[in-house]
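Thread title: Can someone regenerate the structure for this chain?

I was given the following input by a collaborator and told the matching structure tokens would be attached. They weren't. Posting the sequence so someone can regenerate them.
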Amino acid sequence: MPHTVSPPSTPVDYAYYRPVIPLLLSFIAGIIGALYFPGKSFLIASLTVPATGLILHRLISGKLSRWAPLILFACLGYFAFASIEAASHKMDHVARYMNDRIWEITGTIVTEPVIQTHRQKFILGGLSIMPDSGKGALLNVRGNIQVSIYGKGKELAVGNRIRFTCKIRPVRSFHNPGGFDYTQYMMWHNIWGNTYASSNDLTLLDPNSMCFNTALNNIRNNILTLINQASTGDAQAVLSALIIGDRRGLSPPLQEAFNRVGVSHVLSISGLHVGVVATAAFVFFKWILSFFRPLLLRAWTKKAAAICAVFPVIFYGVMAGMEPATQRSVIMILVFLMTFLIQREHDLFNTIAIAALAILIIDPPALFSISFQLSFAAVLSISWGMMYFQQMFSQGIAGKHTALKYAATLFCMTACAILGVAPLVMHYFNTFPLSGFLANLVVVPLMGSAVVIIGLFSVMVIFPFSGHAALWGLKICDWILKPVIDFIYYLSDAPFAAIKTITPSILEIICFYLLAGGIALYQNKTAGKDPGNAENNSAIADPPSNLPRRWTGVIIAAALIVLFIDIMYWVNQRLWHDDLRVTVLDVGQGNSAVLEFPDGKCMVIDGGGFGDNAVFDVGERVLAPFLWRNKIRTVDTVILTHPDADHLNGLLYILKYFHVKQVISTHQASDSDSYEKFLELIRKNAIDHAGFAQIQRSFAINGATMEILHPDADFMKYHSSSTPKDVNDNSIVCKAGFGGFSILFPGDIMEAAERDTTTKNPESLAATILVAPHHGSKTSSSESFLDAVNPEMIIISSGKEDKFPSESVLERYENREIPVFRTDSNGAVRVVMDEKTMSVEPTLGKKLTFRH
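Best answer:
Regenerated them for you:
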């Protein structure tokens, strides 16, 4: 007879009806408090002692305590998170040795090296350092560093002990408003510095110094060899990712196709794969153990099967590399398996809360990781949603036909998962996979279940006894994968596969979940079901239904009101503002600026960029997220000042994924692949790209002005293609103005072009703000040019530890007593101009205000 849950009778019982949930929420509150209010450890400790004492007093007196456990867990969450950053201040931490000194570094590779064009990249732990001069003691330090080894050289693997010499540089973020904090992200993963070395300077030490890792790596290599024999191409890469978590073979087009159709989660060893392994192992061991009569008589079959299933789950996680997402999935599944050891039926949501709490105790920063949030959002959405759909299945036609019921269940699970994680996916990836509903129906059962089960059974059970038989098992996987991958490519090419979206804010995400939760609670009251106990829904009422019905209405109404206010705020920010907003972005070494004109029109001047977008795409990682966060999907005009990589490469992503109406460039040819892609995207998307001689040199946009001052409209006539002017000197020089204030964008012009521009446009060059030409290079910012511009402030866009800006140029600015903001130290600089004032606000630094 199924266990029934009686509705609690007292307020305290009701508050702890699912006891782990309030404790989990308190622990999360403590973690968030430590993030936003650091340095309050003494105050938190003063709360911990009385809370603990009150709990003990209540236990001794036989009474329950409602608030003390919540306070205690909030304090524990605070200390758990605060201890991570506190460790970096200790003398034996690697963060204390990030300076200009050259160190001899010895360490162990702890992650699989990733090959990126001309370098290998990995995480190094178990660090020992000593001064390169040899004058100093060998220091064993805590914390990990990220290592990039350039050039062809030794083949490296997890567990290798290596030695090399270089500086340890701090991890740097791009400091843009609301941007991703890469420094903080790496710190939460215990990675504190970056190092760069040549393969010629690297020494591979005793490979047997880490016996376990070496043995594990040998197993992985043997399995990888078997996979390579059984499969080829994309199927081989996918099979390697599914079986041993090796994603190195996944090509960019393949990854993009998986992302577009919303099935990229299948490629990462996470909850889906570990869950499949756990389920298959549990069913297998339950069947085997059912033949043991003593276990049957004592009703221990399920318990023993759960214990046995633990071992293949752990082995799979270890073999897959135990990446953070895999670790969390393994912990979550192990908690679920352990619930079978409890005599009474477990509560689903309480079990989920136990798994989340266990993960956060082990790794508090996991709360802010994408995989943690997506995993639990998907599990909760599926769990809650399926409780309501199951009654429909049992009563409708799907309940009478097994095949229909399976298909309907799979579709509803997919729908619940996609809708449940949609706000988070849109927040982090700015994508909503419209084809995900169809793709998951095919990919999850075939690739995420069948291939994983057959593949793992082949390599974990059959391979130790018969390599030939295991090879045939993997060939079956290959036969399944190839048509599925073809289907994914076909679906991703469809225009409806996915849509790019603006970034929902944290407030908007909270409102969405409150609205969804309020509607679910309202329906739950009507149906009288308990979504945490599916087997007992016909007999019990969920405790929230004991609350006044009006509270569900209050939750729904509050969420709708806040969403309405939020929408009005963003409509005003985007379309109704009457000022000119200019943001000079921090893109490292390069230039990029976003101009938001009165009444909503948008212009992008240059896109920044590094030499190889495959290594880091500034457009994808910096410029596009900034636009999406500001609810911008349409860019009216893109100006490319000149086709150097640090101005051009970031624009490729913008042209591909945004609605761009017009492109302005000089049309001066470049032999780079990036420039060819630039022109190809313009043609493919039918973007207006008039010849430079045909464009307007001066125009107004809703009260603001835009002028193109250099080069001349017919500049290409004065030199042949065989002996062109320096491409820098042909940079477009443009000026935006509003209300008597202006900002000049001179691209990368050098002294010759400055002299030419000063001669032809001496009065037009005058501007309130100057974006330093050529990043503050010593070949630019001549005295005559500065005289003509006569700026009241200068913004320099450059990267850290670069040859720019020049010390002589900085001295020139200082002698003129011109305030300077630098993107490498001040981050992005936002300029807002109205009729009377101009404010200049750096991301890092003090705001300046100019008035007429």
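Residues 505-576 form one domain.
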